[in-house]
Design a protein that fits this description.
With 293 residues, the chain is of the alpha+beta class. It has nine helices and 15 strands. It has two domains: 38 residues, no CATH class; 209 residues, Alpha-beta prism (UDP-n-acetylglucosamine1-carboxyvinyl-transferase, Chain). Helix content is 30%, strand content 28%. Strands 5-6-4-14 form a four-stranded mixed beta sheet. The longest helix has 14 residues. The chain is globular.
């Protein structure tokens, strides 16, 4: 069986033999010839959900950090561009290794047009609050899946001593006395984004922060490991209770992002569905147990 997927810009004519099936956005054409088995090997890239939090975390580092296994996707490119707009020095050492120096970054508005395009823009709230004591970001953007609630993020930042104001599509956050302070925070529902954002904010806060009912995904552990490698004191990531002892500053270093378990799982499912034999390289088997089982 052959499946044709044709996407054309609104207002542009479709090829003569193709009928329009509705509103579409980009010019692309995918032709999938089914009924064959998959053979070969593929190398998994770095985890997107870890990278989009680790890049903002680099904003908090006083020094140069080298991040390996960086996925080559639009979200990471936009986040790196945002850091560059804020004053960071960014240099690619190879296709998947980037050097980031945020030593000279000063607190200023991040570029609105870039931030509104990505969901992970909210991680800059925690990172900028932690470093500067204030932040201004857009509401989460990205795919049009409807409004993305950030109530648990706000709850966490408020508990740490920040005043949050949302108006006209922007999030304004200011630490009440210029510095965040540790607190015990119970998340009303398990939230990956809120867990990671609170970890970011609490890393440079004064005192101890305890997050209860925290999310436990591998990319949360990866963010904590990155921050710890730069001098943070975070314990319990990967469990439902995370403890962060605030430190005065983070230093530079090197870190490799974990492989993307979603990408790996997709290839595993494709191989299982079609048959054949596929070698999937650069994976952490423990992250794939629910699929391999």
């Amino acid at each position: 069986m052959t499946v044709y997927v044709v996407i054309s810009k609104i207002g542009e004519p479709l090829p003569g033999n193709i009928r329009s099936l509705g509103k579409v956005q980009h010019v692309e054409k995918y032709v999938i010839n089914g009924g064959t088995t998959l053979h070969g090997e593929v190398e998994i890239s770095g985890a997107k959900n870890a990278a989009v939090a680790i890049i903002p975390a680099a904003l908090m580092v006083d020094g140069v950090c080298v991040i390996e296994n960086m996925p080559q996707i639009s979200d990471t490119e936009m986040l790196l561009t945002i850091l560059r707009e804020l004053g960071a020095k960014i240099r690619f050492l190879n296709r998947s290794t980037v050097e980031i120096d945020c030593t000279d970054v000063r607190n200023q508005d991040a570029p609105y047009d870039l931030m509104r395009k990505i969901r992970a823009s909210y991680y800059l709230i925690g990172a900028m609050l932690g470093r500067f004591g204030s932040a201004k970001t857009t509401m989460p953007g990205g795919c049009n899946f409807g409004v993305r609630p950030i109530d648990q993020h706000i709850k966490g930042m408020t508990a740490l001593g920040a005043d949050i104001d949302i108006r006209y599509g922007f999030v304004y956050a200011d630490a009440r006395d210029g510095k965040l302070h540790g607190a015990r925070i119970y998340l009303d529902k398990v939230s990956v984004g809120a867990t990671m954002n609170i970890i970011l904010a609490a890393t440079l806060a004064q005192g101890r922060t305890i997050i209860e009912n925290a999310a436990r995904e591998p990319h949360i552990v990866d963010l904590a490991n990155f921050l710890n490698s730069m001098g943070a004191d975070i314990r319990g990531a990967g469990t439902d209770t995370v403890k962060i002892n605030g430190v005065e500053k983070l230093h530079g270093g090197s870190y490799a992002i974990i492989p993307d378990q979603i990408e790996a799982g997709t290839y595993m499912m494709a191989a299982a569905a079609t048959g054949g034999e596929v070698l999937i390289k650069n994976v952490i088997p423990r992250h794939l147990e629910c699929i391999s089982a």
